[in-house]
TrEMBL record:
It comes from Kribbella soli. It comes from the Bacteria. Keywords: Membrane, Transmembrane, Transmembrane helix. The chain crosses the membrane at residues 20-37, 75-98, 119-142, 154-175, 182-202, 235-257, 291-310, 330-357, 390-414, 426-451, 463-481, 501-521. This is ABC transporter permease. Coiled coil: none annotated.
Length: 528
């Protein structure tokens, strides 16, 4: 047990460092989930209206199959994307307290004390798994307080906790594979995205009697959903998820033994013997190109997915005023299918903001690892060095959004026989998200410039905007809460009227905040 020495102290350290973030995401996710019970109970008071709402192939792609018409089953189904967020937060938390600690050098300092080799990983996992357990208990109590059955409330808590546990373990494995925290996040998020795509493709195929229904059986997200809270309450699937989590955690600990502290199992590729990069931008391209390619491919797949189901969404929406109202709150102004596509574009923009933040934080990785100093020791100024990376945090999302717009326009255009008309509309709608994305990127630049040690707080921007989007998409939300997100100030495209004022205001805000961050970078010590 010497390898776990000091685990308790590291758990206390993690709790102290995350004393704000940890309770915040737990309370927010519980509050959002519980609020859906009353709101969706009022919007869809009859079993018939719920079944009709959930029977469309577009919603099945997004949330999966509805298990039954009861209010508890319906709310659980509509919350189908929230467990994915729990998984995302969990894997990011584990990577932050393992791989990031090694990359920054703090793990080596702690290792010089009475701390076992596995203590850091054990502490990160224990804290994350414990947080998911607290989330599950509070969610079960909250759902039961809304007069839903206790057994089903416990089951939905298991859905959330099980998803969080599994992807926390995925994050632990990813943290052993690479020496870069950014690459570890990319691997873990890629697994999460792949699991969601497998679930979506399998459920859609099953609903349409297609041949790919078996794909959903490969997805841990689908395993959790098939617990079927408030219906069958299949507790044994929770045991399957727990066993898979234990297996992944065991693998993570075994892999940790096989590598050096600060290194990853996947070897770093050596560069050429003679350097050929003549500018900071060329170096930044080499560092960002893999991330850019991965996000671009992912956005193209999202575009194909959403564009392929858009036509079917309109058939059901035309007959139900309550569904029309919900999608209009998501952003559409003209045409029911346009309302759906506008809501989808907002979701795609929110995801693009996560990419923008990740690309921006590459600056902090280069600084904390010591690789920025040799670059700055040349004739390269701080502004030139920062600008070489910010090209990718600003233009990278534009490329990814363009890929989403092209793919969605082609998929939807082919479905309705109007590629020439839909392709430019959806490309424009996708690129219209850029000003809001750049605002969140600018906030990340400002945090890095003035408070580099708090750079991870930059993830709060996309997280808060996603939470606001989840709430306002389905329920009435106070205007000032919605106004916090820059995405709510964009015109709803396609279908809405595009005016220059919102774009210019958001661009001005992004410019001012971003320049302020660069000024802060210019004046502070580096590294800091």
């Amino acid at each position: 047990m010497k390898s776990l020495a000091g685990t308790g102290g590291l758990i206390r350290l993690i709790l102290r460092r995350d004393r704000v973030v940890l309770p915040l995401w737990i309370v927010l996710l519980v509050a959002i989930s519980v609020s859906y019970v009353q709101e969706y109970g009022d919007l869809f008071p009859t079993p018939e209206s719920r079944v009709k709402y959930a029977s469309n192939v577009g919603f099945i792609t997004l949330y999966g199959e509805l298990s039954g018409p009861s209010l508890g089953e319906f709310v659980t189904w509509r919350l189908g994307f929230v467990p994915v967020m729990v998984g995302l937060i969990s894997l990011l938390t584990v990577i932050r307290h393992t791989r990031v600690e090694e990359e920054s050098g703090r793990r080596e300092l702690l290792g010089a004390t009475v701390v076992g080799r596995h203590a850091q990983l054990a502490a990160a996992l224990a804290t994350t798994l414990g947080a998911n357990l607290v989330l599950a208990v509070l969610l079960a109590l909250g759902m039961h307080s809304q007069d839903l059955p206790l057994s089903g409330s416990i089951a939905i808590g298991i859905v959330y906790a099980g998803t969080g546990w599994f992807f926390a373990a995925v994050g632990a494995v990813a943290a052993q594979l690479t020496a870069s925290a950014g690459t570890a996040r990319g691997i873990a998020i890629g697994v999460l995205g792949g699991a969601y795509v497998l679930r979506a493709a399998g459920d859609t195929s099953a609903h349409t009697d297609g041949p790919l229904a078996w794909l959903s059986h490969l997805s841990p997200i689908a395993w959790a959903q098939r617990i079927r809270p408030y219906a069958d309450n299949r507790w044994w699937l929770g045991i399957v998820i727990l066993a898979s989590t234990v297996a992944l955690i065991t693998i993570a600990f075994q892999l940790a033994v096989r590598r050096d502290v600060g290194a990853g199992l996947l070897p770093d590729r050596l560069g050429p013997a003679d350097g050929t990069m003549g500018s900071p931008l060329a170096l930044a391209w080499r560092l960002h190109r893999g991330l850019l390619a991965a996000w671009t491919v992912g956005f193209a797949l999202l575009g194909l997915l959403f564009g392929g189901v858009a036509e079917g969404v309109g058939d059901m929406m035309r007959d139900d005023p309550s569904i029309q109202e919900m999608f209009q709150r998501m952003g559409g102004a003209a045409g029911l299918i346009d309302s759906f596509l506008a809501g989808v574009m907002t979701l795609v923009g929110l995801i693009a903001s996560a990419y923008a933040v990740q690309a921006t934080l590459r600056l902090r990785v280069e600084e904390s690892s010591g690789r920025a100093e040799p670059v700055l020791a040349t004739a390269t100024s701080r502004w030139q060095w920062a600008a070489s990376h910010l090209v990718f945090s600003l233009l990278g999302p534009a490329v990814a959004l363009l890929a989403a717009g092209v793919a969605e326009g082609l998929a939807y255009g082919v479905a309705i026989g109007d590629v020439g008309g839909q392709l430019p509309r959806l490309i424009g709608a996708a690129l219209a998200q850029l000003p809001a994305v750049w605002v969140l990127a600018a906030i990340a630049i400002a945090i890095f410039g003035f408070f580099p040690q708090a750079s991870m707080a930059s993830w709060a921007g996309p997280t808060v905007c996603i939470l606001i989007g989840l709430v306002s998409a389905g329920v009435s939300t106070a205007g000032w809460i919605r106004d916090i997100s820059p995405f709510t100030h964009l015109p709803s495209l396609p279908g809405g009227s595009a005016q220059a004022a919102p774009f210019l205001v958001l661009l001005a805000i992004a410019l001012v905040i971003g320049l302020a961050g660069l000024v802060g970078l210019r004046r502070r010590d580096l590294p800091a």
